[in-house]
Every structure is written in C-alpha cells, then in structure tokens.
Amino acid sequence: MNEKKKGSNFSGQLGFVLAAAGSAVGVGNLWRFPYLAAKDGGGLFLIIYLILVLTFGFTLLTSDIAIGRKTKKSAIYAYTEMNKKFKFLGILTFFVPVLIMTYYAVIGGWITRYAVVYFTGEAKAAAADDFFVSFITSPVAPVIYGLLFMFVTTVIIYKGVEGGIERISRWLMPVLLVMIVVIAVFSLTITHKDADGTVRTGLQGLLVYLKPDLTGLTPGRFLQILLDAMSQIFFSLSVSMGIMITYGSYVKPDVNLGKSINQIEIFDTLVAFLAGMMIIPAVFAFTGTEGMSAGPSLMFVSLPKVFQAMGTPGIFVGAVFFLMAIFATLTSCISVLEAIVANIMAIFHADRKKVTLIMGAVYLIATAVIALGYSIFYVEVKLPNGSTGQLLDIMDYISNSFMMPFISMISTILIGWIVGPKWIIDEMESTGDKFRRKYVYIVMIKYVAPIMMFILFLQSTGILGMFIK
C-alpha cells in the first residue's frame, strides 16, 4: 500500500502548501475567529492565539504531515504502521471527516445562496430579520444549494490530487487572499452615524479588535480564552482529523517539510487575522459591539445588515465577501472528502474514480438529510457542553468538540512517549534540512500538548464547566 499511483502526489512544495492552506482556511476562519476575538478580549485573544499557533498548533500540524509522508498512507493505516496497538486511533481519525462531511456542504450551500442573492440584485432581502431562518427552514432551497456544493466538491476529488485538488487550490487561494485584503482595507475606511448622532468608524473597530481588553479578567476567564483559542486551532489548521496526514502522504520526499509547515502557519494565521480586520471594524461601525453575536448569525445575519447599511457599495462588498467565503469553504470541503476517499481507497484497494462516485452519492444523501434538519427532520438535543443542537450541531459536536481533542491527546501520548519524538524529527530532517523548532516540538509533544488536550477534552464533555465560572 506504499505505492502511489501516478498523479496521486502534489507536484511540489507550492502545490502542497496551497492545498494544505486551502484546507486550513475555511469558514471557521471567516466567522468563528472574528467572533472569538470580539468575545475574548480582542488583542488578548490574538496574542494567546498567535502563541498557541507557534507552539501547540505547530506541534499538531508537524505531527500529522510528517506521519503522512513517512508512512505514505492515509490516517487509518498510518497509525497502525507507527504502532499496531494504535490501529483504533486511525479508525477514530477516519471517522472525524466522515462526520464533518455530512454537514460541511450544507454550510457551503448556505453561503452559495447568499452569494446568489447578492449577484442577482436581491441584497436587500438578505438583510431582513427573518431571511436566514426562512431559508434554512425551507424544505427545498437549502437542499438544492447543499447538493450543488457537494456535487462540485465531488467533481474536483474525482479529478485527483494534482489535476483536481492542487489545480483548484493554486487558483483559488491567491484570489481568496486578494479578496480578503480588499475588503479589510475597505472596512477601515467606513464611517457611520447613528440616528442619535453617535459616530463610529472602522478604525475605532480596528482598535477594539487589536487592543487587549483585560476588563474582568479572572483565572477562570483566562483559562476559557485559552481553551477557545486552542479549539479554534483545530478549525484553523485542519489537524487531528486525518486531512493533513492524507495530504502529507502526497508530499514528495525532496520537499522541505519545515519550510512548508512555516508557510502554512503564516498563510492560515494571516487569513484569520485579516478576517477579523475585515469583519470586526465593519460590524462595529454600524452596530457597535452588539452585532458580534455567536455562530452563524455573525455571517448570515449581522453582516448582511452591515452591507445593507453601506448602501450601493455594500452590494458589491457583500457579493465579493460571499464569493470569497465560497472559495474558503470549497477548499476545506475538498480536503474533508479527500481524506475519506483516500482511506476507503486504501481499505478496499479500490480505484479513486469508483470510490469518489460512491462516496459522492452517499454524501449527496447525507447533505440532503442534514439540510432538512431545520425543517422536516428537526430535533432538539441537549449536548454535554450545555448547548442545544439540531442534526448539524450534533455532528459538529461529536467530530470537533469530542473526537478531535481526544484524538490529539492520544496521538501526542503515542508520539511523545511510545514511538518517541525522534520518529517525527527524523522525517522532518530526511531532506538534510535542519528542523529549527525541534526542541519546541519535543517539549510540546511530550509534556505540554497532552495536558492541554486533556483539559480541552474535559471542557468538551462539560466537566470543566463545573469548575470554570
């Protein structure tokens, strides 16, 4: 199973970095990162996040990519090769993208619907209070858009690694970055005057975003911010879900992994920071801090109101924003389906095209079911973290909040204490290049990351919440 078929590799370092960055830069960067920054003390969250990216995130990303290239296998068999007793870890890792894929195209469909609204001159409708709820509770529209998004994802995976994933990433990622920069700069130029005469500007919003807010900071509050930043890293870097192991298995032996990982970190963190600079100043200028609400409502409720308040320029900005969001979601969706297809190809020794067609059909059905989770299949389930969720929220909780911290915890123990950090370090230095953050990696993988993951796992189960007030 070590042999890769022709075309099942990235052409080189640039292709790999853009594809990996495309996987990392997803919808979580566009609405979850800005929301957390606004909620968790602005610049305080940014500082903590940056430190964690360079230590904790770097450790998990390095592990996944190095495991993939060294074993030349996707997750389900990569962990088995490291230690046969840890085959279960590969199986658990495989099921993370299996669950995520059930709903990711649904979110992509939501974003596509908003893009269509802005490009067809219906922008005013998107700003209505009930637009988002009316759309997702419809038994038809969200299904159609979700299926369309899933179909496009399947076509790209069908075309393979270099011809599909790399080709689309090489085109989309530079365009995505330019769009984010343009909107971020525009957000800083905004000035808005309320009916009562209060004037707010985008530059004031930038200060809210960048300035560390220590108001009401307690040890428990600080720990919560730390945990929020840690959980965001899973979204931001696509770690502990088998994706980077799969992508790592497509990297050629002569590629400098250390340099590639640095570039992925920089690209992803830059996009996340720019997303905050793009969204927070604009929302602040028009709504103050009230518009920075949690979850999908930031992207699908608050921002359309901001675009509407901008007048004519808002139609253009909204169109560009949601087109950009489509690109970000598509590259992530591609990576999730690729991780599934790669594992199934390995399990059944099957052809890519056949597996892709079968899994595409399976997830077209799953997408339709989850899309109907707010209408025909509506349920309300109390989750262990205290929140109430529908079908989409349930899948998201199991995969992102429960399984990923658990997988990270076990994998850090496996690498740090059983196979040893040298197993990873040897691969990082296999091209003759120096692994510059080797000692950071050793300390993190052996001592810090397992403890951090254990704490995050306790938080996801709701146990930690009993002690953090």
From TrEMBL:
This is SNF family Na+-dependent transporter. It is found in: Membrane. It holds the Pfam family SNF. One of its GO terms (cellular component) is membrane. Its main location: membrane. It comes from Eubacterium cellulosolvens (strain ATCC 43171 / JCM 9499 / 6) (Cillobacterium cellulosolvens). PROSITE patterns: NA_NEUROTRAN_SYMP_3 (PS50267). Keywords: Membrane, Transmembrane, Transmembrane helix, Transport. NCBIfam families: Na_transp (NF037979). The keyword Transport applies. It is a multi-pass membrane protein. The chain crosses the membrane at residues 12-31, 43-67, 88-111, 131-158, 170-190, 229-250, 270-295, 315-348, 355-377, 397-419, 439-468.
